[in-house]
Amino acid sequence: MRQSTKLRALERIKGLNFSDCIKFFGERNKREKRVGALARARLSREGELEIDDMTVISEGDDNGSYVMAWVWLEYKGVLGLDKEAETDIT
After folding, report:
1. What is the tally of helices (H) and strands (E) in the chain?
2. Which residue of 17, 53, 85, 86 has the smallest Cβ count within 10 Å?
3. What is the pLDDT of residue 22?
4. Is the CB of residue 27 less than 8 Å from the CB of residue 33?
């Protein structure tokens, strides 16, 4: 199945959201659950870098994994993005 065909099939699923995809692709086995727990323990900083209770793990060939995380990005002082700025040029 070509990528565009897969994406069109997903678009037809009523109510499908990102959270559903995380549940499907996230922490599928005991090893991935251990990696997720380790990442949350070592890397999480509330309000800066957060890892959901169920996340996606991509284990590499090297001695580690990529772990999907949420990183907070502050808009303060960025014209067109700062919601508290006097002017907005979005």
Report:
1. 3, 4
2. 86
3. 95
4. yes
Query: In angstroms, rounded to a whole number, what is the distance separating the alpha carbons of residues 87 and 83?
Result: 9
Q: Residue 88 above 90 pLDDT?
A: no
* Sign for the pseudo-dihedral over CA of 67, 65, 46, 81: negative
DSSP β-bridge partners for residue 65: 59
Give which of 63, 64, 37 is closest to 51, Cα–Cα.
37
Token pair recorded at residue 32: 């991935």
> Of 29, 10, 32, nearest to 21 (Cα)?
10
55 burial via Cβ count (<10 Å: 0-12, 13-18, 19+): buried
Task: Dump pLDDT digits (tens) for 51-74.
Answer: 999 999 999 999 999 999 999 999
Q: Give the residue among 85, 60, 56 at the shortest CA–CA distance from 70.
A: 56
